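Thread: quick sanity check before group meeting

JM: Hey all, I'm pulling together slides for Thursday and realized we never actually wrote out the predicted structure for the chain we discussed last week. Dropping the sequence here so it's in one place. If anyone has concerns about the input, flag it before I start.
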Amino acid sequence: MQSSGSGIAKATVYPPTRADSPPSRHNFDFSKSALSTHNGKYIELDDFTSKTNQVRNDRGHVTSSRNGRRSIYIPNTLWTRSFATAVVLETLATVGIESWVFVSMLNQLDKIEKGSATLRIRSFLGLYIFALLYELALSYDALRRKNTFQLIGLCICNFGLFTYGILQMKEIKETVTEVVADTTRSDKIWGMYQIELILVPVFLGLGTAIMIFVTWKLRAEFSWSIYKDISADLRMNRRYTVYQVYIALLKFDWFFIFGTQLQILLSIQDFKNEEFLINAAMVPVAIIALSLSALFCRREKTKSLFVMMILMVGILTSIIRTMFKMYLSGDNSGLSSFKTSLTLFAAIATFLILSTLVNSVWCMLNFHKGLKDYVKQLRSRKPASSPSGPWNPEVNSRFVLN
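JM (edit): ok, ran it. Output follows.
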């Protein structure tokens, strides 16, 4: 190795020695075992892949060196493991408590009253358990996709569950007092679950703090991973950021739309009611619209995505119409019994749908500018820096040191 006058060693990269392989840029992972010197002039870069059947790529996916098929994602860095551990422990603790309260409390109240009061408790606790499990699934998906914005959304969602946990105590206590006429007995029933229900927001508050800190650490890690795929193209990076935000919004949209419609259906419970039929139809419409929106955005289908936006406007109109009826038209139906939680879910769903519509327009403005190919490569786990094909690890490249 010879040093130049500035004291900096110069290295020249030669393309692969095989004549039938076109030159391409590669991302190398240098290790002592992979380097071998020849007469002190150049260094051979040997096969960097593992000799075993199972290898792990830079995104943490276990893949096969034989057929290239990816298997289940396993967090493989300090901060991804920390985030996954925090969410799993929080989910186990909170779902365990909520499930025990759900079964035990309803067994006692069903002996007294089987009307709308116990139905409210079923909806509160059941929806809460579903939210915690759905958040766990979204956490895994965010880590697998390296979506920083989805992680930020999960932190906000976890804080919302923390707030809902506090409101839940008030709602359950009022419901128990309403069902059990005897004050002494109602206080006794409430006392059996008070500590456990207090622990739920405590665990969620602690989990939220940990998730925020780890998300801040993961932001840099994921940004570097995306940078390696998209390189230094700032405009393409911005377009991919808009796409990531859009996909994250769609995933949160589904839960809050489903939660809103479920509470409306439980409050009406009349299969012949016009309101029941309209809101029941909104559930499959939401599933179709949100699923196809992600597909059409990824494939850059402008007209099809615009149709999905119209369907989302219809869902939003249905939610606003129901809220208007509950607050301004003097509705005396069962909607009033779900007023607090329904208002919370409807407000969040409205905000998310409006944000999604705005982001849809932004995504359409980025269509046909090269992002489609990058998204396809990222989803197939191929590096964007070598679009002509995957690098053949059997071909050696050389660094000649001048």
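AS: nice. Strands lie at 11-14, 35-38, 42-45, 54-56, 61-64, 70-73, 397-401. Residues 11-73+397-401 form one domain.
JM: adding both to the slides.
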